[in-house]
Recover the amino acids of this structure.
C-alpha cells in the first residue's frame, strides 16, 4: 500500500479551487480489490484538484468498511456514497441516477472497484490533452489485462502502438472490449446522453459511453499502459458470461442487448454508421457461434461467408473438434 498523506496528494493543487475531475468509482463486494483501487487514485500527481466519488451498492462484505476508512483519512479527496439497499438490482435507473448525482466536475474519469491505476501521471496527461484540445471529448489509453484466477498479466489492449484519434467506425467494430473502462476520461456533458434509448437498452455502460463521446467529438488514444483491467474476478462480466452453466444464455442475452443498442445508435446518428454497425452485429454472432462450436448458425453469418475456402474449412474443423457442451445447439 502506498498510503501517501492527504497533504502530499494535494500539494500542487490550487487553494480553494473546485475539483477539475471527478473519479467515478462503483463498488460491490470488492473487499479483495478496493484498497488497491483507491491507492491507484492516491498516487496521482496533478496540478489540479480531483475528487474520488465512490459508490458502494450495499456490499455484503467489508467493502464499505474499507471505503469509510479511506474517506476518514482523505476527507478532501474521497467522497463516499454507501447504499443500504442495492440499487443496481432494481433495474429502474436508480443506480445510474445515484452515481451521476455525485459527478459535478468538468471532467469524469472512470475506474470500477476491482480495477486500478498504475501510473502517477495518468490523470495529468489525459487532462492536459483535453484542456488543450476542445474538439476532443474523451481520452483513452492502453491498459494491462490481469487474469484474477491466475494472477498473471495476459497482455495489453488496445494493440495500437501510435498515439492518434480513433474513428467512430473503428470504435463500433471494437465493441465494449475495444478499451479498458478504467482508461477513459471524458467531458461531463456526455452525461446529457444517458437518457437516450441506446443507453437504456444496452446491457453495459462502457460501450454507449464511448459511442456518446464519439458523437460529441474526437476520441483520442494514448499508447502508454497506465492501468490494470481485471478479468475473471468474482461477479465480473467476464466471469459471468464465459464461465459456468449459465454463461451461454447470459452471453446470448448480452449480444442481443448490444444489437438493440447499436441499432438504436444507428437511428440516433441518422444512419451514419449502418455498415459498421451491421458488420459488428454479425461479428458478435459469429464469435458466439465459434466459441460454442455451433456450425449451422456460424455458417449462416456474413462474416463466415466472406472467409476464404481455407478459412471456412478451419471454421468447420473448429466446430467439429469443439468440446463445448453447446456445440450441438441449433
Amino acid at each position: 500500500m502506498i498510503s501517501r498523506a492527504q497533504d502530499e496528494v494535494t500539494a500542487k493543487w490550487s487553494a480553494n479551487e473546485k475539483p477539475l475531475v471527478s473519479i467515478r468509482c462503483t463498488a460491490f463486494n470488492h473487499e479483495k480489490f478496493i484498497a488497491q483501487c483507491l491507492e491507484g487514485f492516491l498516487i496521482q500527481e496533478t496540478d489540479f484538484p480531483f475528487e474520488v466519488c465512490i459508490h458502494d451498492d450495499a456490499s455484503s462484505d467489508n467493502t464499505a468498511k474499507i471505503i469509510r476508512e479511506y474517506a476518514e483519512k482523505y476527507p478532501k479527496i474521497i467522497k463516499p456514497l454507501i447504499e443500504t439497499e442495492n440499487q443496481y438490482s432494481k433495474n429502474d435507473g436508480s443506480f445510474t441516477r445515484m452515481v451521476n448525482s455525485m459527478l459535478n466536475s468538468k471532467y469524469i474519469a472512470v475506474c470500477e472497484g476491482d480495477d486500478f491505476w498504475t501510473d502517477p501521471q495518468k490523470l495529468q496527461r489525459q487532462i492536459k490533452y483535453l484542456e488543450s484540445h476542445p474538439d476532443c471529448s474523451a481520452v483513452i489509453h492502453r491498459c494491462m489485462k490481469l487474469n484474477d484466477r491466475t494472477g498473471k498479466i495476459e497482455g495489453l489492449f488496445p494493440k495500437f502502438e501510435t498515439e492518434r484519434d480513433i474513428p467512430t467506425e473503428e470504435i463500433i467494430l471494437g465493441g465494449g472490449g475495444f478499451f479498458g473502462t478504467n482508461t477513459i476520461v471524458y467531458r461531463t456533458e456526455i452525461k446529457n446522453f444517458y437518457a437516450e434509448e441506446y443507453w437504456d437498452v444496452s446491457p453495459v455502460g462502457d460501450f454507449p459511453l464511448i459511442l456518446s463521446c464519439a458523437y460529441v467529438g474526437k476520441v483520442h488514444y494514448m499508447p502508454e499502459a497506465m492501468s490494470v483491467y481485471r478479468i475473471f474476478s468474482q461477479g465480473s462480466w467476464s466471469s459471468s458470461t464465459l464461465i459456468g452453466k449459465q454463461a451461454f444464455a447470459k452471453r446470448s442475452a448480452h449480444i442481443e442487448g448490444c444489437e438493440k443498442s447499436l441499432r438504436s445508435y444507428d437511428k440516433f446518428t441518422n444512419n451514419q454508421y449502418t455498415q459498421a454497425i451491421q458488420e459488428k452485429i454479425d461479428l458478435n454472432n459469429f464469435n458466439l457461434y465459434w466459441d460454442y462450436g455451433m456450425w449451422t448458425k456460424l455458417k449462416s453469418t456474413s462474416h463466415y461467408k466472406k472467409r476464404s475456402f481455407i478459412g471456412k474449412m478451419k471454421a468447420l474443423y473448429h466446430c467439429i473438434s469443439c468440446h463445448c457442451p453447446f456445440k450441438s445447439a441449433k
